[in-house]
DNA sequence: AGAACCGTGCAACAAATGTTTCATGGCCGT
DNA sequence: ACGGCCATGAAACATTTGTTGCACGGTTCT
């Protein structure tokens, strides 16, 4: 067997396992069972926990074809690396042409988005909602495609807190609003890569003003997340297609509004009922047929 | 300074970032953006890639309250550990009363929405996209909360068909646009119960004008779906919460735009590239760091 | 302008890392 | 039973790690 297809280092390990000396098998099983620790902690550390000799790890690595433990660990590290950001060309290419190609694209897209939703941190949203609940005023920002999410959030929050919520720039140039941020107020900024300069400016202004900054973004490294008190993450690029997905951001916005409403208690409920009554009186909606 | 619970090392870093020296900010951003490498590779390695001094990493760690880089990395490692059953016994259990109810609400909501997405009919979307592709002009309508979805759809479609897409009422009263519908054009109406009268009027106008009517709604019985050539269904009320969910509608809109773009072929791709180039030239976006 | 301060890169430090060597002990084959 | 072989643990090795002291350059305050 000269060169076999390099599968995962873990499977290489498992395959070679039975033909190894007793002690090396033991160590090998430990590595397979604790591969996360194997990539992060030191050899001696692992040896202590596994109750084995440090040298055994080096020998194990060599026994399955690596130059040493360092190389094995590097392979494990690469195998574990999250979000291999390369299926861009790969996945897009192997979609076939034909009448079903579009349907397949949509199905993939929907499934990917559905898979992304449960990965959103509910805990973080709940904390941010509490901050919103306590805020004297709420500013919302989102540019370009994120504007749609910003407007939905604005809409839903205004249903029960009409005079305390507004979109930045809704009543004039953004710059005017940036100077109006105050401590005790909350500023929500929505954005993903590539980030607009305007959204970063809003985030910075909020931070400088001492307002509570809530960022809804695709990465903790997003520039508008710097200094943010709460960062709500969604997966924008997880789904195939020519444009990042906003499904996650929208789900976050809706949850945020729902929990904030919940925290509002009876007062919020009453405001919502008032709003609904007003809309009904203006016959905005099609009357339900009896 | 606001008192905040030590949630994640990344958020601590993020919060402290703006108040840090320039060089440390740079390093901190690098760590936030490459936190996986931060946990696996060595300080000197990271320094080389970030183009910074190794000592900066130690200083960064100390600046945000850790005893050194080792401790920061250990914290990052723990935060990243898969299957976080018990990172540290203390904090997760502390929240027994308040937020737990909210967290449960959010989790339920997200799961319900995730479950709803795969039930969307990809076939129907593909057919509607074909209709959009062939339309000489595309009108989009959505009122109240659905306005956000309408705007996203408008935004994405205009990326590659700028002069053929517009929101009804974007350049004057809706009534004016209603008279402009023509055969060969497509009208998209988004809505769910309770249905606004305005959206029904648009749908009826489209139908009478002989335009292709595409309804994105929560029911085939929706009044704006009457006479529609394509009805794309989503589940608005499937998730708990005080307000119906728009996640499904947004997912439909995004898929619709994606497939329409796909059908547009090379021409659409070129338009999109032109648009992106123009945005880059206007320095709308934060330039990627080198 | 002077002085104090701070941020920053460089280089040397001690500690910890992965590796190797060596001695020991058990195992199998002739 | 003897000799060769190999697995195994402990200790010594060179290297790399994270850290710290120091000097330089810039800014700010008096």
Attribute tags:
alpha/beta, 290 residues, Arc Repressor Mutant, subunit A, DNA-binding, homodimer, 13 helices, Rossmann fold, 5-stranded parallel β-sheet
Description:
The structure is a homodimer of 290-residue chains. Chain A has 290 residues and is an alpha/beta fold. Chain A folds into two domains: 9-79, Arc Repressor Mutant, subunit A (Orthogonal Bundle), CATH 1.10.10; 115-281, Glucose-6-phosphate isomerase like protein, domain 1 (Rossmann fold, 3-Layer(aba) Sandwich). Chain A is 54% helix and 8% strand. The first copy, chain A, has 13 helices and five strands. The first copy, chain A, has helices at 9-16, 22-33, 35-40, 43-50, 54-63, 69-80, 87-93, 101-116, 122-134, 146-158, 174-178, 197-209, 247-281; strands spanning 138-142, 165-167, 186-191, 212-217, 230-233. Chain A has a five-stranded parallel beta sheet, sandwiched between helices. In chain A, strand 1, helix 10 (146-158) and strand 2 (165-167) form a beta-alpha-beta unit. In chain A, helix 2 crosses helix 5 (54-63), helix 5 (54-63) crosses helix 6 (69-80) and helix 10 runs parallel beside helix 13. The relative contact order of chain A is 0.10. Residues 1-5 and 84-96 of chain A have low confidence and may be disordered. At the A-B interface, helix 3, helix 8, helix 9, helix 10 and helix 12 of A face helix 1, helix 2, helix 3, helix 8 and helix 9 of B. Chain A binds a DNA duplex (30 and 30 nucleotides) through residues 21-24, 42-44, 52-59, 68-70.
